[in-house]
Design a protein that fits this description.
This protein is mainly alpha-helical and 509 residues long. The chain is 47% helix and 4% strand. It contains 22 helices and seven strands. The strands form two sheets. It has a four-stranded parallel beta sheet. The protein has a three-stranded parallel beta sheet with strand order 5-6-7, sandwiched between helices. The longest helix is centred in the middle third of the chain and has 19 residues. The protein is globular. Bound molecules: iron/sulfur cluster (SF4) (2 copies). One iron/sulfur cluster binds next to α5.
Length: 509
Amino acid sequence: MADFEVPELREFPVIPKLKEGAMKGSGPFVSRAPFQEPLGYPDELVENWQEKALEKLDDLRGRYRSLQVYLDSCVKCGACTDKCHYYIGTHDPKNMPVARQDLLRQVYRRYNTFAGKYFPKLVGAVDLTKDVLDDWYNYFHQCSQCRRCSVYCPYGIDTAEISMAAREIMDSIGIGQKYCNEIIMKAGSIGNNLGLPEPALADTLEGLEEEVEEDTGVAVKFPLDQKGADILLVTPSADFFAEPHVDGLIGYAKVFHEAGVSWTLSSYASEAANFGMFIGSYENMRKLALRIRKAAIELGVKRIVFGECGHAWRVAYSFLNTLAGPWDFLDQNYPVPQHICEFTYDLLQEGKLKLDPSENDHMTLTFHDSCNVARASRMGDKPGGQFEIPRAIIKAACNNYVDMPADTIKEGTFCCGGGGGILTDDLMEVRVKGAQPRMEAYTQVVKENGVTNLAAICAICKSQFTKVLPYYGHGMTDIVSVHQLVSDAIILSDAPKDDDDESEDSDNN
Ligand code: SF4
Ligand code: SF4
C-alpha cells in the first residue's frame, strides 16, 4: 500500500532511536505564481532572499513578542524531545521540537546576537545558506502546529508559533507551500477551500434536504443565504460532501430544527477553515475572517455558530474578535462565536433535545481530542469544557464509551498527523508516520475494550483518519463525526410515527 515503511505499532512506547536525515527532502510541493501573488507574496524565490528573509524575521520579532521570547529562552533541557508525533513516527532528530526550533534559532543567533556574530560556533549559530533554507522548508512543513511540545516545556515555548513564523518568512521570499496557498486563494476569492460556487452549494444542500426527509419523514431545512435568520452557521466545506463530515452537518441541521431556531449558511462565507493561520499570516487570516463579518452583517444574523473544525475553532475562539471585531451587532446574550457542541450541549442540559442512545448500540466509541480545540481554545464557561462538552454529547448519544490512555488525550492529546497544512497527498509519508502515536492509543482500546469507532470534531482529523486508519489495520469508516452520532440518536418531535410505534402506543393506552 505504501512506498515507504509504515511504523510498527508498539505496545509500550519507548524513545525512538535516531535516524539522522530520515525525512530530509520530504517537503511538500512548492507553491506557484497563481497561488502566491493573490496572497501578496513573490511568485518565486527572490534574488536577495537572504537579506529579505532576515528583514522579515526582524519584522516578526518586532510584531510578536512571544516569538522573540521563544527564540531567546530555550535552555536545551530536552523535555520536549520525545513529545512530537513526527519525531516518534519518523525518528528524524530534526523533528524533535527543540531541533525544529533551532533551525530558526541558529540563524537568529548568527545575525541578531553578539555571541552569534563573533563566536558563532560557540553558540551554535549558523549562516542562512540554501541548505539551511531547504531544511526550513522540509522540517517546518513536518510540524502540524499542534502545540503538544509546549505543554511539556517548562518555559512554555510554543514550536507552533516558530513554525508559523518560519513559513511566513518563506512565503515572503517566494517559497510558499502549494497546498496551503492554493486553499487560501480559493477561500479568499470563492468563499471556501474547495472552490465550490454558490449554485453547486445550493444544489448540494437541496439534495441533503431531500435525503433527510426521505430518511426521517421530517422536512429538516438546510437554508442558504437566508436574510434575517437568527444564526449564521460557519462550517468547514468538507461538511458539504465528504464522509463522515456530511453526516455531522446533517446532525447540526437536525439539532437546529429540533431547537426551533432559524439559521442559515452563507455562500459568501462558506468556509470555517482559515489556513491563514497555518502559514502564520495575520493579513491572510484577517482577510478570510472579514468574509464572515461581511456575511453576518449582510444576512442580519444575531449569532454565529461554528461547525466541527479544530483550527477554525481556534481562530474563532482566540482571534476572531481582534481579526474582525467588534461583534457588537450580535446578540451578546450568547457566546460570540459559539461552537456547535456548546449549542447542542446547552439544549441537552435544558432537556430540549431528546436522544435515543440505543440507536448507536452497534458501536463502542472513543474520542480523539483535536489539538487546536484541546490546547488552543475552550468551550463552555469552565476550564476543561473543551474536553468535557464533546464527551458529554457522545455519552448522551451512545451507551458505549471508553477513553484512550490518559497521557494521549485532553491536554496531552496526540495530533492526528494531518493538521497545520500537512493534509496533502505530497506529504503522505509524514502523515502516516506522524499518526503512529494516535494509532497506538486507538489500537490499545480496540484490543482491550472492544472499541469500534473513533469520534472527532475536526474536519482535518476526520479526513486524515479516513486515509491513515487502513495503514494501521483499521477500517477507514472507523472515524465518525460527533454530530453524526447525535444525528442517528436524535428523536425529532415532529417525525411521523411508524406503525410499530402506533401499535405500541395503543397497547399502552
Ligand atoms: S507543535 Fe506539534 S508537530 Fe510541531 S514540533 Fe511541537 S509536537 Fe511536533
Ligand atoms: S522543553 Fe523547552 S526549554 Fe527544554 S529543550 Fe524543549 S523547547 Fe527548550
